[in-house]
């Protein structure tokens, strides 16, 4: 019975809305009982695609148009620390309860070596091969602190603040849909940058350093062959208690394999400001809380292995996110779109990606 319960818990952790990747308050398709949606609206939007694979599984029979039935309630993972990596680490969730052996874990952070000016002392090649590759392949999550140094980080922050003042930021959207419910799911403001815009030179430099790292990792991150990326998504949570509910960036194979986030928040205090990124690694009874600290770089797998949420932020919170593509999966996603004759719910719209940052 225990094994069956564990399997049931794992199955629930794989359940996501087929349209937007959301993981909370799911409803089950009443016809096939194997696909899930966060609302009847999303079920209807996805029907042209879903009807191709929707098969009758249970009796009594129901019509294809029947709405979803109530999904299962979700179980919160046990709150314990993740283990420390090598040079780049996964910060654990602080455990305020005494563990069974009586030894309370200390607060672990990224211990990447730094230079006197605050920047990591490792070259992009060493940082990639000695820290990021082993940490990603072991944990699926990797944190690097002091990535570019205080001076460069401040320059990037000033670029972002200038952008925000121009009014270019718009409400964050969900993949392949626009609805009134979006604000209930995510509360950030975003804009997309390719690096050639005026007054974005420091953001462009950040993107080039991210690209350098991934280039040195290529061929060693899982089985991926990375051949491209999205534009940079600059995001701001205005600090009015908004966040982003638990979701998966790439639940259905759109090509994104690595999520790469750079944080820009000076003197961030999670107890006071909130805004933690909480990751729930698939199949593990633990979660990782990532504080959006200034000059911190975070990488994690973009697929269903890393459901995550942004907890409500009570201070202005900035981040820059780039998603990297696996060549084979991206080619399959494009082919699926082309053969789908432009049907809604099939097109991969990366400029309205789910935002983990």
Provide the helix percentage.
25-40%
The helix tally amounts to: 9
* Fourth-level CATH superfamily of the domain at 124-174 and 183-340: q2cbj1_9rhob like domain
- DSSP E strands, number: 15
CATH topology of the domain at 124-174 and 183-340: Jelly Rolls
- Which parts are unreliable, with pLDDT below 50 for 5 consecutive residues or more? 57-111, 176-180, 341-354
Query: What's the CATH architecture of the domain at 124-174 and 183-340?
Result: Sandwich
Q: Given the C-alpha coordinates, what overall shape results?
A: globular
**Chain-averaged pLDDT:** 76
Query: How much is the radius of gyration in Å?
Result: 21 Å
Primary descriptors:
globular; 357 residues; 8-stranded antiparallel sheet; alpha+beta; zinc ion binding; 4-stranded antiparallel sheet; 9 helices; 26% helix; Jelly Rolls; single chain
Task: Describe the 3D structure.
- Keywords: Dioxygenase, Iron, Metal-binding, Nucleus, Oxidoreductase, Vitamin C, Zinc, Zinc-finger.
- Residues 55-123 are annotated as: Disordered.
- Residues 109-123 have a biased composition (Polar residues).
- Its cofactor is L-ascorbate.
- The chain has 357 residues and is α+β, with helices and mostly antiparallel strands.
- Among the domains are: 15-51, no CATH class; 124-174 and 183-340, Jelly Rolls.
- It is 26% helix and 19% strand.
- The protein has 9 helices and 15 strands.
- The strands form 3 sheets. Strands 4, 5, 6, 7, 8, 10, 13 and 15 form an 8-stranded antiparallel sheet that branches. It has a 4-stranded antiparallel sheet with strand order 9-14-11-12, with no helix packed on it.
């Amino acid at each position: 019975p225990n094994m069956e319960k564990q399997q049931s818990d794992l199955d629930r952790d794989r359940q996501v809305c087929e349209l937007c990747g959301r993981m909370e308050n799911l409803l089950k398709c009443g016809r096939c009982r194997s696909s899930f949606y966060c609302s009847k609206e999303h079920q209807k939007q996805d029907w042209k695609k879903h009807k191709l694979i929707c098969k009758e599984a249970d009796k009594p029979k129901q019509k294809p148009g029947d709405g979803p039935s109530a999904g299962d309630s979700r179980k919160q993972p046990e709150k314990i620390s993740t283990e420390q990596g090598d040079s780049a680490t996964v910060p654990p969730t602080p455990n305020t309860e005494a563990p069974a052996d009586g030894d309370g874990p200390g607060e672990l952070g990224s211990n990447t070596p730094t230079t006197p000016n605050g920047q990591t002392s490792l070259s992009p090649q060493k940082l990639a091969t000695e820290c990021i590759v082993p940490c990603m392949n072991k944990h699926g999550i990797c944190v690097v602190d002091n990535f570019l140094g205080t001076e460069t980080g401040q320059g990037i922050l000033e670029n972002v603040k200038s952008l925000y003042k121009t009014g270019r930021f718009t409400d964050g959207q969900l993949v392949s849909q626009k609805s009134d419910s979006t604000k209930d799911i995510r509360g950030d403001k975003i804009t997309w940058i390719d690096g050639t815009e005026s007054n974005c030179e420091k953001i462009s430099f950040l993107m080039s350093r991210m690209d350098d790292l991934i280039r040195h990792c290529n061929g060693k991150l899982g089985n991926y062959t990375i051949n491209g990326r999205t534009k940079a998504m600059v995001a701001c949570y205005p600090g009015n208690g908004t966040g982003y509910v638990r979701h998966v960036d790439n639940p259905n194979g759109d090509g994104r394999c690595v999520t790469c986030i750079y944080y820009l928040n000076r003197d961030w205090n999670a107890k006071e400001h909130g805004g933690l990124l909480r990751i729930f690694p698939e199949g593990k009874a633990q979660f990782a809380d990532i504080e959006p600290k200034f000059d911190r770089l975070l990488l994690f797998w973009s697929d269903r292995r890393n459901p995550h949420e942004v907890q409500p932020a009570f201070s202005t919170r900035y981040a820059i996110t780039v998603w990297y593509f696996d060549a084979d999966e991206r080619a399959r996603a494009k082919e699926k779109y082309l053969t789908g004759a432009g049907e809604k719910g099939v097109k991969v719209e990366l400029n309205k990606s789910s935002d983990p940052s």
